[in-house]
């Protein structure tokens, strides 16, 4: 029996980045997903969290073939609603407002990296709509539930990014 | 009487959130108010009852861009209270980590936030399409500064390795070797940056500012010095409150700082440069002259050139410190608390950051006072805005608005520190 697609080829370098501040309610979705992924990903997959200075993402993903980012989106009425955006085939939609209290947010970092030809070959963004970004609070129940779903999807996503010929079952 | 209102709801490319109201009546600017409506953060209040050892890590949280400034002012104040003097290689390491903060903070502001104003781009992303090499250089500069912060501070944002008496851990020479390699490249980028920003079109605008900065007998100031101005101030930092006062202003959650006898003053790159030009290495002085600057620069729009020069200086100083580095025997001097009041004042990228703490015999804080740079510059920003707006009143509202935003960015205001959005509304009656 032949394992699907990866015989004889080294896995591609993959990075998972959780974005946001875990002390500001649903802004902590990225951190929570990365925390849930500990021990579930192949050892060659890099994982990190970033809560500010998203400009540094351009440094973070240098040398990686594939990157998965998880971030929160501003409330639009359906807390926990999840978006998967493949930046190879889509723009980061402007109607999904990623939360950022800093000068440069994720869309800016991605756009700047693309302009400078410093973006990874494959960049997948999971965005979860938040319900509350209150300081000192944890995830709201709907977003906490979405975090578990996103974690499972990221595991599948990482598998496909490491071995691109593998089909992606989400 | 004709009434006209121009409003900008969100000003970008500054650190934090605030707003501006510009009132124009009968063709004259009658009021320019920088509204800081970031909720008060109560740092001084929640420091009460905390131990001295916690203070550097607590105050680092005031700002993600300039945490070293807060940590350094705090440890100097603690050491001042407890009668400790940190010198030798530990002092050098403090200057070194401060170089890292100046490099990363200035590089972010000069290239990513301020340069687009001068070249007519809405943001750095659009600017990168035509000036990709400079933006890449900016990212490399920021990375070099971050590396210094990471190696010495444990991490680049809210470093965790600074303590009263020194550091929790000091680096080996080998750890600094790759940082020096990055800084050597960063220095080349910084020199190119000075030459690039010096070509920008600057409005002909000068004001007779009172500049306030630290002045050290031998060094361009980071951590130490007397507090001086280009008027008559020359005081020990402990006497800050005899010359300066903070006032609550209704339109701002940040206090306004003023020279008691005169009013508004300016801290930051323009002030440091004007009061310490002779303390810059001759190489940086020569580069400044090549960039068209004399020993004093009163045009706030040219602050971008001065910031770039300070990046060059910080790179050179960091390389000098690394070349002379020998790891100290102790990572920190022993600290014994006593009941006393201590003062610290250091040069944050945006200007002096002044701290006073009153400790009891166990080293618990009974009272704290922290004066950040932006609250000191706020009255001058407002005066600049009124003057700048007056000079372009005959221009379309769009031009007035853009020039006002640029004027605010001249100061690289860190509104997060001072109390965060900037909304701009312009009313003509």
In words, what does this structure look like?
The complex is a heterodimer of chains A (170) and B (429). Chain A is α/β, with parallel strands linked by helices and 170 residues long. Chain A has a single domain (14-103, 117-162), classed as 3-Layer(aba) Sandwich (Rossmann fold). Chain A has helices spanning 29-37, 57-60, 106-115, 141-162; strands spanning 14-19, 46-50, 66-73, 82-86, 122-129. Chain A has a five-stranded mixed beta sheet. The longest helix of chain A is centred in the C-terminal third of the chain and has 22 residues, at 141-162. Chain A is globular and about 45 Å long. Chain A starts with 13 loop residues before the first strand and ends in an 8-residue tail after the last helix. By secondary structure, chain B is an alpha+beta fold. Chain B folds into two domains: 4-39 and 377-428, no CATH class; 43-376, Cytochrome-c3 Hydrogenase, chain B (Orthogonal Bundle), CATH 1.10.645. In chain B, the strands form five sheets. A four-stranded mixed beta sheet of chain B has the order 1-14-2-3, with helices on one face. In chain B, strands 6-7-8 form a three-stranded antiparallel beta sheet, with helices on one face. Chain B has a three-stranded antiparallel beta sheet with strand order 11-12-13. In chain B, helix 3 runs antiparallel to helix 4 (88-119), helix 4 (88-119) packs across helix 5 (124-130) and helix 6 (132-153) runs antiparallel to helix 7. The longest helix of chain B has 32 residues, at 88-119. The model of chain B is unreliable at 5-12 and 416-424 (pLDDT under 50). Chain A binds chain B through residues 51-53, 55-56, 58-59, 101-104, 108, 111-112, 115-116, 118, and chain B through 12-15, 17, 64, 108, 112-113, 123-125, 128-129, 132, 135-136, 139, 142-143, 146, 156-157, 420.
